[in-house]
Amino acid sequence: MAIYSRTRTRTEQGVPPPSEEARGGHLIASNTGAYWQYPGSSHSAIAAGWRYRSIYTHGYLAAGYKGSNAWRAVNKTWHQTDTTLYCGEQLDREGSYLSGTYSDHNGYIENNGHTTAGTNLSSYSLANGQTRKITTTGGFSSSGVSYGYVGYDPLNEGLSYGSSGYGNNVGGWNFSTSVHDCATASGIITQEGLWAGGTHGTTSHSLHFASEVMYTGPTASSSGLGTGCQGEDVGWLMNGGNNKYSYNWSNRSMGSGGTWTYGTDGQCKALSSKHGHHYVGTGANVSIGQHKFADSNGSVLSSPNKNHPNGEENQEDGQDWGYTMGDYNGQQNNWTVKYVYTTDAQTTMGAACMPKGHYGQSSGFCSTGAASVCDVGVS
């Protein structure tokens, strides 16, 4: 595999000339020639179409808790081998009962401590699970990085600045108001992350991944502990008390929810798929009921019970299967279940696939990456 280095001084025949933007990028061969793959390049390892736009190869579990202790841990799972590796205590602070989104290159979580609301956003790389760069002001910086996933100026993407203002956080990514355990969804094609509702009101926030600027969005339909999942055209959002609504990625507007049932206390967490359907629990914390619903219109397709009664799941999306990477079943645990999207089969996994580092870590957040894309990710 060719990787561009600053020390490269000549162009070999058939190899495109390198540039400063491509430093650290991989050389990709295609039927139209070779190119350097890096964020913002005119070429891309991202394919057309929804399901195969990028091939998910691995995911991360970040944060979580057991008892009164919250963690800074990050675990990486390779989906092809069902193997999970402990990446260390990577986060800038411990967190639990939190929510997040992810881009092609990075994971983002609202992270303010154990069961605590606040305005802080933490981030880690989907290439290696390492925390992003921390600045002296407590935020993060991606200065010097070439962007361009869907546009250069967030204002040209139809976003607008939050009415409450951002003070010293202009150009950064912290929230304008305190948030906690929101309903979230990731716009995979639009490269936008959404936080809505939660325990602190109906304000929604939208993170423009390319610029990493946070904006306030349309008012959420409800508040309370929540979860969410994402499809090609909409994100599906839920808050406790069977409150359901959708978010249209194309025009960034809130809409109605589907016909599935969502639990009363917001503790059951949703699992997304790229196969036209998603899964979410129908009961309160530590329950076994579950609905599989259509991404196209939110209608119930079937009711496959969970592998075991639980809640506070860490749900990790995948290409053809996903995982529950620990949950709460009366105690916080590392119980790992593999979901096969095409058959709804659920398999309890062994120690190799379970999260490492702590004996239990429910109420964290999982994100998913594609090796062909995120291995040249933003630092």
What does this entry look like structurally?
With 379 residues, the protein is an all-beta fold. The chain has 2 domains: 1-38, no CATH class; 58-374, Kelch-type beta propeller (Neuraminidase, 6 Propeller), CATH 2.120.10. 1% of the residues lie in helices and 31% in strands. It has 1 helix and 26 strands. The protein has one helix spanning 371-374, and strands spanning 26-30, 33-37, 58-62, 65-66, 69-70, 73-78, 83-89, 100-102, 106-110, 121-125, 183-187, 192-196, 205-208, 213-216, 226-230, 234-239, 243-248, 253-256, 277-281, 290-294, 300-302, 315-316, 321-325, 336-340, 346-348, 365-369. The strands form 8 sheets. A 4-stranded antiparallel beta sheet has the order 7-6-3-26. Strands 11-12-13-14 form a 4-stranded antiparallel beta sheet, with no helix packed on it. A 4-stranded antiparallel beta sheet has the order 15-16-17-18, with no helix packed on it. Strand 12 (192-196) and strand 13 form a beta hairpin. The longest helix has 4 residues, at 371-374. It is globular and about 60 Å long. The two termini are 21 Å apart.
